[in-house]
Inverse folding.
């Protein structure tokens, strides 16, 4: 689950992380009132959407003033005007996709005197099963570009969960960032607070880009956090921060049915049980010359109703030209999958090719259910056969 920048800063502040004063606004008038409450001089007006690259983004509408989603201004009147230009308009960034996202709120923050811009993040390293700190002297730019062009400028520090973050971890990061004197103390205090926030909120990623040096202090100028959805039952306060308007409607609907769904750009819809099998299915679709339209894992204990819901979600994507159902029945019984597929196909008036590969528990019963359904379901013997058939059927239907 993702949250907005202003929400991340409010959360981090509770853990002692120093953040610049600011406030959220939903209208231009509210933005002006927030600015009036801040130290006078310089203000930053920030669009709040769930996508990075806001500063370099562009608005689709001419009324937005032809500037990016993060603007530095010097008067309350300019704050109001720029907020008016942003709110209600569509911001397109490198992470939002071509459709962009509608800005429904802005964050007004006090400016500061920036000496240097750095990069800092914490994330879960699956290779070590530990929290890892990433830091770089190249702040304010896409870390992906730094990793590709100058990987030597990124330093990593893995944290042993048995000891937690230690002073030498912080000093290593501070030295790598070229900090000196009181800046090292500020960085050490900041890292300790960030680590505690990361652990105690069950975060899966915390990114500060840029982390800025201003005099003797090191401050987060931006903050991005997301959380392990499986742990949100422990954090009702964080769950309340969820902004469903920022989520893909199909992914949101899938989450309500406990389905793991991610929309992609291809034309072959996939319904699979198990993340590994789903990834293999997507790979083999590409191998046979097509692109997957989604990642969808119905899980090991899916019911007929959940399978039916998954099928409907796949078909709600207008780009889907064919569907591949690939089930290996262990805990998940093949007859349950077959009943769900048949029920959904009848309910939504299936009009695209459907290929089903079943293997495992009750596979013969599952095949019998599909064969006797009277629906144009194409049966496959193995994964390669299924991929070849669905790609061929889609091409023939074009």
């Amino acid at each position: 689950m993702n949250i907005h920048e202003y929400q991340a800063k409010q959360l981090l502040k509770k853990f002692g992380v120093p953040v610049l004063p600011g406030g959220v606004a939903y209208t231009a008038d509210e933005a002006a009132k927030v600015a009036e409450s801040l130290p006078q001089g310089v203000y930053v007006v920030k669009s709040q959407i769930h996508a990075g690259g806001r500063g370099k983004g562009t608005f689709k509408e001419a009324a937005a003033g032809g500037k990016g989603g993060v603007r530095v201004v010097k008067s309350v009147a300019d704050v109001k005007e720029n907020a008016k230009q942003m709110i209600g308009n569509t911001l397109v960034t490198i992470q939002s996709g071509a459709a962009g996202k509608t800005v429904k709120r802005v964050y007004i923050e006090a400016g500061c005197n920036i000496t240097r811009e750095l990069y800092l993040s914490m994330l879960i390293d699956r290779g070590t099963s530990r929290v890892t700190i990433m830091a770089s002297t190249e702040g304010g730019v896409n870390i992906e570009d730094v990793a590709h062009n100058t990987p030597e400028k990124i330093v990593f520090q893995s944290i042993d969960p048995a000891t937690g973050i230690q002073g030498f971890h912080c000093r290593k990061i501070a030295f790598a960032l070229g900090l000196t004197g009181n800046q090292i103390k500020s960085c050490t205090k900041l890292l300790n607070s960030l680590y505690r926030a990361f652990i105690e909120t069950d975060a899966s990623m915390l990114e500060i880009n840029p982390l800025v040096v201003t005099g003797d202090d090191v401050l987060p100028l931006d903050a991005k956090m997301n959380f392990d959805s499986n742990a949100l039952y422990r954090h009702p306060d964080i769950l309340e921060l969820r902004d469903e308007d920022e989520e893909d409607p199909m992914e949101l609907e899938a989450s309500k049915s406990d389905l793991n769904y991610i929309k992609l750009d291809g034309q072959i819809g996939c319904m699979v049980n198990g993340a590994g099998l789903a990834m293999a299915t997507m790979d083999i679709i590409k191998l046979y010359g097509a692109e997957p339209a989604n990642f969808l894992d119905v899980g090991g204990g899916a019911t007929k109703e959940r399978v039916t819901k998954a099928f409907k979600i796949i078909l709600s994507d207008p780009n889907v030209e064919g569907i591949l159902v690939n089930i290996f029945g262990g805990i998940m019984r093949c007859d349950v999958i077959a009943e769900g597929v048949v029920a959904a196909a009848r309910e939504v008036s299936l009009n695209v090719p459907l290929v089903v590969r079943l293997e495992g528990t009750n596979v013969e019963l599952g095949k019998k259910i599909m064969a006797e359904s009277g629906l144009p379901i194409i049966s496959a013997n193995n994964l390669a056969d299924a991929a070849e058939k669905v790609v061929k059927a889609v091409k023939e239907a074009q």
User: Anything to note?
Assistant: DSSP finds 13 helices and 19 strands in the chain.
